[in-house]
Amino acid sequence: MTLIPRRILPPQDCAALLGLIQREFAYMEGRIDPPSSMLLLTEDAIARQAKDEEVWAIGSPPVACVFLTRKGDALYVGKLAVDRAHRGQGLAGQLLDLAEERAVALGLSALELQVRIELTENHHTFAALGFTETGRTAHVGYDRPTSITYRRRVREVS
After folding, report:
1. What whole-number distance in Å separates Cα of residue 92 and Cα of residue 22?
2. pTM for the whole thing?
3. d(Cα 122, Cα 59) in Å, to the nearest integer?
4. Which residues are 150's β-sheet partners?
5. How far is CA 44 from CA 41, 89, 95, 107, in A?
6. Which whole number is the average pLDDT over 66-72?
7. CA distance linking residue 45 with residue 34, whole number of Å
8. Is the backbone of residue 59 left (phi > 0), alpha (psi -120 to 50) or beta?
9. What pLDDT does 49 receive?
10. In this model, does residue 102 exceed pLDDT 70?
11. How far apart are CA 10 and CA 75, in angstroms?
């Protein structure tokens, strides 16, 4: 298995990526309210993300992945997932480094991501990786924050 991130081009690996994300986000079921958008994710949606923005994976079949989407002056990091059997090998860090490289290449100044309020272990992880809280948002129909937005500046863009 290769450990070099590769850009996914549809329909390459869309089914395997969907399975990876579903498995690795399953722990959120019953912990977060509202339920994860992962429940609405389809192979077609992954293919659109890969075509319109970026999807990167490590391994064949994929054991880690990330979705990257331009959002204002930032590159939004979504659906970051690492197969349980491959954790502790630095794959998430490798994908975040790649995200930073892509942000710089695109002339963007930051990485941005959101973490659900209930997933406190993820708050600590991203804070340790240099992300700082920049806001809290509520999903439609909720009168309380449901997500925390985090940002991390990237190295200077020329």
Report:
1. 17
2. 0.94
3. 23
4. 113, 133
5. 8, 30, 23, 29
6. 98
7. 20
8. left
9. 97
10. yes
11. 21
Assign 113 to helix, strand or coil. strand
CA distances from 21 to 18, 54, 67, 70, 105 (A): 5, 16, 11, 21, 26
Amino acid identity, position 117: I
- Phi (first) and psi of residue 50, to 5 degrees: -65, -35
Q: What is the DSSP code (8-state) at residue 154?
A: P
Enumerate residues 6+ apart whose C-beta is below 8 A from 17.
8, 46, 55, 57, 62, 65
Task: List the domain boundaries for the chain.
Answer: 6-153
Residue 136 CA to residue 158 CA, distance in Å, equals 31
For the chain, how many helices (H) and strands (E)? 4, 7
Q: Are strands 110-116 and 74-82 parallel, antiparallel or unpaired?
A: parallel
Enumerate residues 6+ apart whose C-beta is below 8 A from 97. Answer: none
Region 6-153: CATH code: 3.40.630.30
